[in-house]
Amino acid sequence: MPSYYDDEHAYEVFCQVGAGQPISHTGSVSAPDPLLAWQSAKEVYGRRDDVTVLWVVPRTAVIAAAPEDELAMQARERAPHRQPAQPIKIRKQREAGAGSRSS
Amino acid sequence: MTSRVLADAERGAEERLTPKFERWDPMTDEYRAGALRITSFQVLAELIGVLPFADWLSRAPSLARKHMLMAKLQDEVGHGHVCARVAEDLGGDRIQVLQDFADGKTKVLNIFHYDFETWEEIGPAALLMNSAAIVQFQSLCKGTYLPYARALKKIEREESFHFHHAIDMTHETMAVGTTAQRRLAQQSFEDWLPRVLAYFGPSDADKIHTNPLYLLGLKVDSNHDLRHKWLSKVIPAINRTGVVVDPDLVRPAEEPGRWIFPDSDWDEVRAVINGGGPASQRRVEQIRTALEKNSLYRDAAYGRAA
Asked: Do residues B186 and B178 make contact, with C-beta atoms less than 8 angstroms apart?
C-alpha cells in the first residue's frame, strides 16, 4: 500500500521571519493537498515567530542539482578569476615592482 | 558517503562526526536504518510525552497556566511532526510508528509510564524531563545526519520555553504555596529524579566506542556523559526553585562536571518499560483510540475509500 508520507505528498516550506530577511527553507510537511500543506506549515513552523512570508512548494516541483553537478557548482575555488583577490594581487605585485620608477 | 567535507573538519572535530549526509546523499543501509530508528523513536517519544500533561489541561489552576500548558503540548506534537518528516524521508511512516506501539511491538521510555497525581507534581517532573531532553538534543544535533540536526535545532528553541515554564511552576509552588503544596513538589523531585536518571540509559562508558550508532556519528555522546551534563544543568536550576536536593540522592563529585548518585535499579526500569508502570497500559489504549478516531479523517483527506 503506498504511503501517505512519500515524496508525492511532501511540501517544502519557506518562511520569512521579519520583513527584509531572506525567505529561508525551514523544513517540510506531509499533506494530501496544497491548501492543507499550507495550513500544516503554519501550524508546525509558525507557532513561535512573526512569520511575514510563508510558502509551500510541492517537493516534486523542485528542480535540484544532481550529484554529477557538484564540480560545476564549485565556483569559488574553480574560478579565481571571478574573485577580487586576483586583480588585487596583480595590482599589488605591480606596485611593489614599480617602486623604483620615477615619474 | 558524500565527497563534501564541511568546515567541521577544519575545526579539528572528530573524524567520526565529519562526513555529513543530506537526505538525497547516498548512504549505507546500516546508516539509513540507524537514522530511521533514532528519528522514529523520537516521533513516538514526542507524541506520547504529551499524554501525561494533557490530563491536566482541563484542570490547570489558572488561565495563564492553561495557555502555557496548551502551548507546550502543541509544541510537542509539532516536534513529533517535524521528526516524522525526517523519518519519512528515510522510509519511515508516522502511522506505522504509532501502530507498532499500539500493537505492543515497540516500547517507550520509562518516564512516560507514569501519570501526574497532583498539579504540584508537574513542575519538578517537567523540569527534570525537559532539561534531560534539552541536553540530549544538544548532543544529537552535532550528529552526521543533517535533516535531523536541523530539526533538533528548531525543537531546541522551543524547549527553552518549556524549561522556563517548568522552573516557574516549581518556583511558584515553593515560593507561595501552602506547606502541603510545597511537600508535594519536594516529593515530586525525589520521585522523578531516579526515573529521569534512568532515562539516559545504562552507563556505556566502556562500550561506547564499539556502538555502531556512535561510530556512524548518529549517537554523539555516551549515556554516561549525557547524564552528568544533565545534572550540571538541572541541579542548579532545581536549587533556585527552593526545592531541597538531598545529597544522598545526588551531590557534586570532586571532579568538576561530575556527580555522585546511586545507580539505577535497571531491573525495575526494564519492568516499567515492558509495561509494568502505573500508566503503561493506559498509554497503549490512548494511542489505539487516537489511531481509530483519526483514521476516518485521514482516509477521507487522502481520498481513499475507508
From this structure: no
